[in-house]
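can u pls check wat happens w/ flavin-adenine dinucleotide
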Amino acid sequence: MAVTKEEEQSRQRDTGRHVIVVGAGIAGLSAAFRLQQTGCSVTVLERDQHIGGRMRTAAHEGFRMDLCAIWLTRNYREMLQLLSDAGLEGEIRHSTDWIGIVRAGRIHPLRLHRPTDLMRTGLIGWRSKLRAMALMWDARHATTLARREDVSAAVYADTESIRAYSSRRLNRELHDYLIDPLCWAFYLASPDDLSVVNLFSEVKLAFGAPCFSFTYGIDTLAQHLAEQLTVHLNTAVTSIQQRDDTVKVTWQQPGKTAQEDHADACVVTVPGPQVPELIPALAPEQRRYLSGLTYQPHIGVHVGLDRPPGPPYTAPYVVVAVPSTEDRDLNYLTFDHHRAQGRAPAGKGLVSLHFRPTWNERHWGRLESEIIDEALAVCRRALPGLARHIDRYRTTTMVHRQRLALLARPPGGYRQMQRFIENLDPQARIQFAGDHLSLSTTNNALATGELAARATRVALQSVTPAEARPQRVHHRGETP
Ligand SMILES: Cc1cc2nc3c(=O)[nH]c(=O)nc-3n(C[C@H](O)[C@H](O)[C@H](O)COP(=O)(O)OP(=O)(O)OC[C@H]3O[C@@H](n4cnc5c(N)ncnc54)[C@H](O)[C@@H]3O)c2cc1C
């Protein structure tokens, strides 16, 4: 790609600037990649021994298990752009977008890129189908995606819970068999506890666009970015302090004494509730907001099978969601061998079981073997046919626990987020990124990383705020 004269000048101003990025999840890696592209010298410090954070894939006995995020859609504009800029377009694979929803033990399929499936499904009756059109309409016009650069559109709709919205605009059947399972599967939370903005965003994101994946795992982008960056794993940052024109970062590696470095700027991408312990100088209201964010815990039980399950699971489901009226503990299952070749060896199957947060809390400290036994017991109760197949063909199992998994924003949560963002100093040398500044998705986390990279460049005075400012999106009825 040709480099303009302005880009070359700003690159020269950035060259020699040192930026430390805390966290090697997708927000941190996208921030680091964009800063390095402009000439900054970047170091990424990651507490874990793996790259990717919640966009991670684990290799386990021939299987490639996506441990948290699984779902990428063609609506992920920033991710597609970054994939292209990083030379990874050729790695993108089409992925099935079938979800199944269980009702009375039967699985009803929906292809998300075909909203007309909702009109044909036997999952809900015709009255509910008509009501579903109201939801599509409200989601289309009430909000754009809750993004950091324009949260006003989200705030505009942030007035009630999903349950209250369902009672007011939809009906019981639609709520129980579509809204409830999608909320639990997307946010690990009950519709009672979520702002309706989450529902509208989910509908806008999920419906109407095809999905994509990568052959060897969802971490393909993260791994590729990390290969081009200096990343230190097993490095837990313990303190970040701004001192005039530098930022002092202290970290600890296992078995070593604490170390520190001085950088021109720092981008902090750890989940919101972990930020206050790293930055002693946070204002009290910032500290209160970040500490008060509710992330749900997640346990995934990933089961490698000698052969994939037979009918009805031969349909190319990515996710089968279980409404809370069908089972109190089992939330959703993923059929990973359907997502892309390469997740399971040829002829084998990979199925993952995911539970509601109350089950996750109850089992958090238990031994892995106990979690597996209990997980299979739940499956036997909720989906006995599938459980019989798992019991017969299970060859390997892996349990993954993610304490801060998904952010459940209640009504009013987007207003609080807006206040927090408005009070941030756009020219500070410590910038923030991560899904606590947006909706919990890989693409939104990535977009916050890119915004933090731009803000850092403004703070380092290599670009003007006008050059760094993204296009603002206006919602319906608002004067630009
Ligand atoms: C179960 C589950 C399913 C999901 N499904 C989807 C999906 O299908 N599609 C989708 O788009 N999104 C999905 N998401 C959401 C998505 O995974 C996240 O929103 C996104 O990956 C968050 O990225 P991040 O970089 O903000 O945070 P993270 O990925 O959490 O990265 C933060 C990093 O900071 C590191 N860190 C923390 N403390 C320190 C420290 N003191 N020092 C150094 N490093 C530190 C962490 O180890 C971590 O690697 C899912 C999430 C979960 C949990």
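The longest helix spans residues 442-459.
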